[in-house]
Design a protein that fits this description.
Blueprint: E1 6-9, E2 14-18, E3 29-32, H1 35-43, H2 50-66, H3 73-88, H4 95-109, H5 116-146, E4 154-157, H6 174-181, E5 187-191, H7 198-209, E6 213-217, H8 222-227, E7 233-236, E8 240-242, E9 247-250, H9 253-262, E10 267-270, E11 276-277, H10 294-297, H11 299-302, E12 317-320, E13 327-330, E14 333-335, H12 339-355
Parallel strand pairs: 4-5, 4-7, 5-6, 7-10, 8-11, 10-13
Antiparallel strand pairs: 1-2, 2-3, 8-9, 9-12, 13-14
The structure holds the ligand CSC[C@H]1O[C@H](OP(=O)(O)O)[C@H](O)[C@@H]1O.
Pathway: Amino-acid biosynthesis; L-methionine biosynthesis via salvage pathway; L-methionine from S-methyl-5-thio-alpha-D-ribose 1-phosphate: step 1/6
InterPro entries: IF-2B-related, IF-M1Pi, IF_2B-like_C, Initiation_fac_2B_a/b/d, M1Pi_N, NagB/RpiA_transferase-like
Binding site for substrate: 48-50, 91, 198, 249-250
Amino acid sequence: MEYETVELDDKDDALVIIDQTKLPGKTEIIRLKTAQEMWDAIYLLKVRGAPAIGVAAAFGIYLLAKQIDTADYSTFLAEFRKQKEYLDSSRPTAVNLSWALKRMEKIVTDNGDKSVEEIKRLLKTEADAIKAEDIRVCKTIGEFGLTLVKPGDGILTHCNAGQLATSKYGTATAPIYLGEERGYHFRVFADETRPLLQGARLTSYELHSSGVDVTLICDNMAATVMKNGWVDAVFVGCDRVARNGDTANKIGTSSVAIAANYYNVPIYICAPTSTIDMNTATGADIHIEERPAEEVTQMWYRERMAPEGVKVYNPAFDVTDHSLIAGIVTEYGIAREPYEESFREIFARKENAEYD
Ligand SMILES: CSC[C@H]1O[C@H](OP(=O)(O)O)[C@H](O)[C@@H]1O
């Protein structure tokens, strides 16, 4: 299934995305032009998934910068920062949002000696680079992930860390897609992932459309398929990895990790280095987004599933303790305990690679 999760239409000054809230029933392409439309699209998960949110924010802030009508650098910088802070406020947990926006801001602050028009051109180049890197990073994560499994293995996924959460390949699905190209024929079990069903609506849709052997299960069935011996590894994505390896990912991931450890099934986090936040010491320091009750009680504000007025707790993410994680698969290798030391080695490799 070839489609672009996030595209830039530079001529029409539009950020073009698939509205993921309409999948799998309808593939609806929408064009975002204003800061409000971009903010809403991220908050409402029309575009979602840490890497895809980062790419959307990079193109989005570029388009908003284009609209800043001034030749004065200080005025441009002030307005740029206002728009950046606004987009950054849309969702708090996925570090890629702020990481991409900071990268774009650095283009502006590093080039104060250039004209505003030249800075706008440099912003476009940086946003294109962020998207290109995302594709390369995901493919490389797939290569490292493949070293952890063998043809015919059963793989369990949770939420969607697939093509729709990135620019291509996905992170947790990258080994699956690469394996499919090379005849590995994995048997995938996709958790539906309540309340917003990213696993049912997106992961099973992506994999089934790509001819992958995928079985959709309810979240409360994950332990059973592991107990049955059908799962050889768990691959999940992430939204923020703390320095000690604690990982924030879609709500329910920590339950999957506990079950996986009980049944001796390794769980691997597939994490672009852009999602590893060395400034966050442990999972306790990660801000977990809480979302509206209606997502739990009314299935996308449609079918009522619970009594009106009932109390609801709806955290969008949880934190999996580093001690439960068998390895963290990055584009510069697989990190293992002790994670802080392993991450420092991986970032050193990244630094050297970027200078090669
Ligand atoms: C490529 S990993 C993306 C990560 O983001 C998802 O969250 P959401 O659907 O709320 O954006 C989920 O946690 C995935 O693992």
